[in-house]
């Protein structure tokens, strides 16, 4: 198998997760050759991880520009803090040597920056850029998507997604405690779910209404004299251009939950549900009612490493590697437009909470 050389920019928790996933793709020719991070402890932890996985030690750099200039990689994974994505992406896209890019969600923290990345990438058609909205690949989500696309449920009218989970984890220098760094909770965390809503609805967003607050988490934390401003719960309603609607129910102080994510898609003739991490899908039809509801265990036998996201990061890499090897004959499965719109919905939600009104997608895209 021809070798594909990867560089990882940002090797905190998620960067190390990418190293672990790529280690399980060695048989596919994936090899991590270099890493970059200005935080020495993160570099040391990644080198320790590489040793524990019996990987050749990657070359370590303190900055992404040195990594790009080294010529050591063909693909760059950007898993640095959200607020750094824009500068790093522009540097990669504009570098003389072409590098394919997998960028962690969110694409950028603002719509304006996302749009600039989209335009810059159009000038480099030889570069594939995929956005890390890997929840698409979770087996129960993918199975439910398959059911929806088959037409089994009829025309989709409503998509409801509940995420009840634990608070945000501690990150290097606590960057994720503030909206200015993360883009806000609805951008940083919930872009995943807005992406799924678009897929299930088969449509694009028109306007957003949200209500949210900081009610429990981080209220007693202070960093450099500042109290965190990231919301810990919200309801978000998204209206789509085909008349369907989506709703997100987010709570980040709900550790006592059997499932972290519960997704419901209702069409005019049936209903489908997906549950993570139980990894089951339920399908029921209006004609047969409750007694006719079928339960399916969702699995994907291609997964060799579950990792932090139930095998979805492994499948994300597997798919992106296949797209690269196809030399552009099929684009990345999660493209820059997907990344832009997932951020735009999140930005509209954050703005709706601030202003107390519906916010149109055109309003935020014109920023």
TrEMBL record:
GO terms for molecular function: nucleotide binding. Residues 4-132 form the Gfo/Idh/MocA-like oxidoreductase N-terminal domain. Gene3D superfamilies: Dihydrodipicolinate Reductase, domain 2, NAD(P)-binding Rossmann-like Domain. Residues 146-360 form the Gfo/Idh/MocA-like oxidoreductase C-terminal domain. InterPro entries: Gfo-Idh-MocA_inositol_DH, Gfo/Idh/MocA-like_OxRdtase_C, Gfo/Idh/MocA-like_OxRdtase_N, NAD(P)-bd_dom_sf. This is Inositol 2-dehydrogenase.
